[in-house]
Amino acid sequence: MILLDTPSSIGEILNREKIFHISAIFLSHKHFDHIGGLTFFEYWPEQLRVYGNMSVLGNFEITDRLQDNCKFQVLNDRASIKINKIRVTPFEVKHKVPTFGFVVQENNKSIVHFSDKENSELSEYQRRLLKKAQVAVFHTVVYEGGTDHIDVVGVIGIAQEYPACRFVITHIGHNNYVHDVLVKKLSKYKNIIVAYDGMEIIL
Ligand SMILES: [Zn+2]
Ligand SMILES: [Zn+2]
């Protein structure tokens, strides 16, 4: 099991989902909503590897307990890390601060997680990833008019270009539509899924 980002409610989420074994944590960037729950792992019963770029790993004071329990390792753009059978490849996405998206691959199937990608054109590399992916995840804080984050309208456009890929939207902000309304609005797009707590996706 690998974990992408540690929001402040991570302890609650892992307990609810009965997840008690994690091999590695990947941190996308230094914004608090993505790392605020890291100290929960001070008391994790196994050694953890925590990966991130220099910007995120240098951003917080690592407590002694966390230092004992975790091995922190710096990620480099497009340099893959193998965790058991899973290959994780970080790739740069544009956001307010240095940020990594992640390609997670197993048995020739892949999920491309765009983290807090801003609302700008996809790079050639990102388009190549989407061509091969089964699932893509975007963080859409607003429905329209996104700046630091891509918006739902932007994801609808991309999803139509890649009909073989399923698009998951998450990180829905208070200025977006509420969940039910969003699900209804997007129901005509067969390859867009609005994420919800506890969602599982089978590749
Ligand atoms: Zn952010
Ligand atoms: Zn965020």
Polypeptide structure, described:
- With 203 residues, the chain is α/β, with parallel strands linked by helices.
- Helices cover 24% and strands 26% of the residues.
- The chain contains seven helices and eleven strands.
- It is globular, with a radius of gyration of 17 Å.
- The chain folds into two domains: 77 residues, no CATH class; 97 residues, Metallo-beta-lactamase, Chain A (4-Layer Sandwich), CATH 3.60.15.10.
- It starts with a strand and ends in a 9-residue tail after the last strand.
- Bound molecules: zinc ion (ZN) (2 copies).
Number of separate domains: 2
Q: What is the oligomeric state here?
A: single chain
CATH class of the largest domain: Alpha Beta
Mean pLDDT metric: 96
- Strand order within the widest beta sheet: 5-6-7-8-9-10-11
The name of the CATH architecture of the largest domain is 4-Layer Sandwich
Using only CA atoms, what is the Rg? Answer: 17 Å
CATH topology of the largest domain: Metallo-beta-lactamase, Chain A
Sheet/helix structural class: alpha/beta
Shape: globular
Number of strands: 11
Low-confidence stretches: none
Instruction: Please write the string of helix (H) and strand (E) elements.
Output: EHEHEHHEEEEEHEHEHE
Summed up, what is this model?
With 203 residues, the chain is an alpha/beta fold.
Provide the descriptors you would attach to this structure in a database record:
Metallo-beta-lactamase, Chain A; binds zinc ion; alpha/beta; 4-stranded parallel β-sheet; 26% strand; 24% helix; 203 residues; 2 domains
Write the layout of secondary structure elements.
Blueprint: E1 2-4, H1 10-16, E2 24-26, H2 32-35, E3 48-52, H3 54-57, H4 64-69, E4 70-74, E5 81-83, E6 86-93, E7 99-106, E8 109-113, H5 124-132, E9 135-139, H6 152-161, E10 166-170, H7 179-186, E11 192-194
Parallel strand pairs: 1-2, 2-3, 3-4, 8-9, 9-10, 10-11
Antiparallel strand pairs: 5-6, 6-7, 7-8
Bound molecules: zinc ion (2 copies).
One zinc ion binds next to helix 2.
